[in-house]
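Bug: token stream looks shifted between consecutive jobs. Job 1:
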Amino acid sequence: LITFAIMVSFSFLTVLSLIPVVLTAPPVLIERGVTPSSSVGLAASFWSNWSEGSGSYRCSNGAGGSYTATWSGTNGGFVCGKGWNPGGPRTVKYSGTYTPTGPGYLAIYGWTQNPLIEYYVIESYGELDPGEPWTRKGNFTFEEGTYEIFTSTRVNKPSIEGTRTFQQYWSVRTEKRVGGTVTTSRHFDEWAKLGMRLGRHNYMIVATEGYTNNRVLASGSSSINVE
């Protein structure tokens, strides 16, 4: 695979999104943990923890909506976080610390089915280095910030339904932050305006993710609390 590091600057991102690039894929989250009932009023008690490859990484499930993660020399990938099953339109409030090096994200992350969609609302990152070429769809601004919108397609890759071909939807915050409020319904609505349709919601978490891009090994730590 040809690896390519995407610059942090979003003016550069806009140009780069027009160039076909193949990048090392971030890990696909495999659902693990306790599944609470489907009430959207529940606290963020759904825990998910996945990893592959070599490296030193540790994710620890804390009380309530809290968790911690540390990683270094990651050759492969990991992703863990706290949230809800099912996910869907809700106001997500989170706080904490996140200090990454190399490729990886702090994001609201989830899946839908029929259609099968993997989605990210990226709040912060080390290197912004997605696995497939992005197609820029637009941007929007509201009281929570400005986000660039992208799509990408994964072909015959692991998913919550096994090996499938599916689309990824991305909202990427133009100014990194660790802590705040994310109104997921606003992202879903903005995606829908661009023809990016979601299906029936599966789980949704506030996730810490790190992975190799065959050039840089990820490392860092996070301590997150989801309300």
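Job 2, same session, no restart:
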Amino acid sequence: TTGPSSVSDSSLTVESVEDNPDGGCHIYRNGYYGSSLAVVEGILEVNIIQMTSIQMTESQAENSLVDFVVTCQGSLPTDVCTVVSDPTCQVSKSMVCDPIVVTDECLLTIRRAFEEPGTYCINITLGDDTSQALASALISVNGGEST
């Protein structure tokens, strides 16, 4: 950039830019530019406020089901993703994403199945077109019971 040059309208700035793409050719560009910026609120915070094991009969006990009650602040989410990982939150075991419809207040229940007992790291991500927010928790699933 060679710097701004003066013009008769002091609110506008003209910049002359030198572009040297192949070492021998000089291209000079002069002009005006403008842009607009839209600020959106986005999803500011996600909290897992409750985890409840769903009691099932012995004939249904192939998977342990857990309901996660989740709240958020800011704009309303349009999708939710749940990543189940090992207890260190390093090795992902499964990921499920679903579209959701939240109409008034950001309070939703997410049901997830666990194939075997153990301790898991749960990451729940709520997202919309412009933002994402994440909450994490450790959960111990004990053959139909969780703590």
